[in-house]
Amino acid sequence: MINITTLSTAVILIYVVYMRFLHPLSKYPGPLLATLTNGYKAYYVYNLRLHEKFLELHMQYGPVVRVGPNHLHLWEGEAIAPIYKGGRKMGKSDFYNAFTAFNPNLFGGTNEDIHSLRRRQLSHGFSQASVQKLEPLIEGQMKVLIDKLRAFAKTGEVFDFKSVLSLYVLDILGEVAFSKPFGVQAKGKSDELHAINDHLLLAGVIGELPFQDLWKTLARMSPVPWMRQLVKSRNNLKEICSRCVNFKINNPSERPDLLKSLVEAVDPESGSRLTEQEINSEAFAVLVAGSHSTSGTMTLLLWHLTHNPDIFAAVTQELHEKLPPLHDNQTSYPIEGLESSLIYTMACVRENFRMNPVFNMPLWRRVGYPGGIDIAGHHIPEGTSVCISNHVLHHNPDIWGADHEEYIPDRWLDENYNKEKGKFLIPFSIGHRMCIGRNLAMTNILKTITTLLMRFDFEPVGKERRVNVRSSGIGEMDGEFLCRVSMK
């Protein structure tokens, strides 16, 4: 009789030999453990540094790396269009199912027909014209931020700019997406932010694993307190969304906000509207993605500016030359015209997007072409999950040069460089799945940066020359951003 241990050893050995030497992806280099289990990726998501690990692997192995049993990660610019503009032949993988809290939303939905319908229903509410109508709501929360910074300036208190901006952006989202602020700026803390982090970590880890329903069940039943906390946090966020959506549906008003747009969203082709459950799903996505991506980007941008005095001086000089002084009855500058008129400031924004893109999760696509597809000179078999994540792409030295680790906004001032390299800058992704919230994010960023830099001077307490991002999919600056502020 065959010994169970011997049989198990033989099965494992056969599996290892097949995955490493006989599998269709065996010709592509990568760590041994990654070729055997998706737990390799899940481990680095849990440790908040999958984006850094992927970059390390490309530096070691080259342009294509096998990062999972059936997963290839690429970093060449030529791979962007085939992967993210391939339509139905390059559909979303099961990875996205882990992010579903209600129904699949615009981000997580894998059905192309439903995605097209949802995009048509939501496009008007997220258009630049609609976002500009939300500016008074944004300015209401900006007044709270300005008052807080004035108080810090008066006392000379050292404060954590990262925390201040995170609370500010969350209150803006409450205003524009849920019809009321969360009031976290006044409280100085937020359970919602912790819950969002927990949800992203839970979804990011499970998304990289097979048998997602099993892992979700184990997380709910786990005796480990931190795992149960992740599930509890997701449920808390769902409850917040449900309450706000239900109130908005049953108490209609003329208040212009995204929730009103979701309730009234109509497909121009079919006339169909969103159900309450679908509204919950989209509101949940706005809450999760909108808060961390915007506050994280602003925090990192201000870190780079304050730690590079010459660059900071050039930005403030441009602002004073291009923008009039703010009047006493004026909270901030209107968004119209800011992006086109502030050439150097936008170069700083672009360089921040390049250096530290906070939305850095691997957006996996599954090859659906019979017989596979050639991408950037590499043949990828049908059924393979492929990705080119922006952190890795934005640090490819073959694209950006040996100084890709340096914050150099001037690189974007050359028109030819901008035209040539701009197509490789994808902080909001690209193609028909591009982030629908770009207009709202850029409005928040530009209104806030211009207003703060025209009103205040900021001095970082620390003198670090490098900033790190920790991310389970949507990242933020690692550690505190301690500052002092003074009035101009």
What does it look like?
By secondary structure, the chain is α+β, with helices and mostly antiparallel strands. It has one domain: Cytochrome P450 (Cytochrome p450), CATH 1.10.630.10. Helix content is 54%, strand content 9%. A hairpin with a 2-residue loop joins strand 6 and strand 7. Helix 3 (39-46) runs antiparallel to helix 11, helix 8 runs parallel beside helix 22 and helix 9 packs antiparallel against helix 15. The chain is globular, with a radius of gyration of 23 Å. It starts with a helix and ends with a strand. The model has no long low-confidence stretch (mean pLDDT 92).
Classification by helices and strands: alpha+beta
What's the end-to-end separation, in Å? 85 Å
Beta strands, count: 12
Architecture per CATH nomenclature, i.e. the level-2 architecture: Orthogonal Bundle
Mean pLDDT: 92
CATH class descriptor? Mainly Alpha
Into which percentage range does the β-strand content fall? 5-15%
What's the story with the biggest beta sheet? Answer: 5 strands, mixed
CATH superfamily: Cytochrome P450
| CATH topology (fold) name | Cytochrome p450
Main sheet strand line-up: 1-2-8-5-3
Protein name: Cytochrome P450
Family: Belongs to the cytochrome P450 family.
InterPro entries: Cyt_P450, Cyt_P450_CS, Cyt_P450_E_grp-I, Cyt_P450_sf, Cytochrome_P450_monoxygenase
Organism: Penicillium frequentans
